[in-house]
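On to our target:
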Amino acid sequence: MSKDDHESENNLFADALRNLDDAAEYAQMHPEALERLRHPRSVFEVSIPVRMDDGELKMFNGYRVLHSAIRGPGKGGIRYHPKVDLNEVKALAFWMTCKCAVMGIPFGGAKGGVVVNPLKMSRRELERLSRGFIQRISKVIGPDTDIPAPDIYTDSMIMGWMMDEYSKIAGKSTPDVITGKPIALGGSLGRQDATGRGAYYCLKEHEKQRGWKPQDVRVAIQGFGNAAQPLARLLDEDGYHIVAVSDVRGGIYRPEGFHVPGLIKAMQEHRELKAMHYEDGLAKLIDCDNVSNEELLELDVDILVPAAIENVITAENAPRIKADTIVEVANGPITVDAQKILNKKGTFVIPDILANAGGVTVSYFEWVQNRAGFYWSEEEVNQKLHQKMRTEYHNVFELSQIHDTDMRTAAYVQALTRIEAAFVAQGTRDYFAETN
């Protein structure tokens, strides 16, 4: 990693606040509300002892940040990754505050993470780590205070362990403390595909605006994981050509497009990208070119989907991005400086706090179902998600037209307007000064 990359990574929270400043000019936000958003409500750091399968005791560092609870309980995922750090978790919690506000969900923002490489742990070790983390943070989470969910390298089973551990501590069943759980443990139908499906619904609205014919559109996806796979499947079913995909090891490229069900099946069965075509139960390996993750971003495609990690599109490579449309399925894949370059080029970016908000939206649906003890069909969940994504996409687009600005700034304007209303409702200096 270069010095510039290292500094950018360490300043992820500061970079996130630059988006806040840019949007505040349009939102005409009250200074007190703006100042409160610069500071997380609470930052909790823990160490988790885990007895490994070979008998060794290892310590793991973990974090839980509650950025804001002004509009409701904190909401945000827990990620397991060797590069988790506090600045990253603070930035992600801030983005969650804005994301929930963009979608009009009555949640604040939170995030958590553990510094660990889960790929080097057994399932038994992962369970001990997951339960140990909940034991450490149980005093700062809860169904009415802060509600975790899955994120990078955490899945529904891990969420089930966490919910079970919290229930033991609470002495009662608490399915509403965690979302993204297995269906059998109170999870919601439609939650697994929600992030990718939400991005798909946004893209379909953009398709109508552009007058695209799907069969003429080429798509490249960096990060072919749980969020990107449903998006790829839905686009493929509509006739879009998925011409490049990648994972942490690198990518594959085929100008004619891939058989997406084959790609997904290969990932699920072999945990690696293979250009497979499945038909009548027979598998056939298709010729394709290997590309790096960096090369994939610069391919000559119509739609680029960064769905992996933060800061992959920077001021250095933004001039070489050829896609007309970028859909941010990952959190923070485009730096602030890169966004300015893309704006000058006329690149249309559907920002993360809108494009990938399907996950938190259906997490909200799951929380509502848990508290009501009444569960919806998958069709009903998807219908409610579609309506919500379509409404907020057009709300943000209308703001971008009113303020003559990009979609990211417009999304933050929408978020800040809703957040400010909550702060002002509790009273600002203007209110209290009048009473003296």
Notes: The first strand starts at residue 42 and ends at 51. The CA atoms of residues 319 and 345 lie 8 Å apart. The mean pLDDT is 91. The two ends are 56 Å apart (CA to CA).
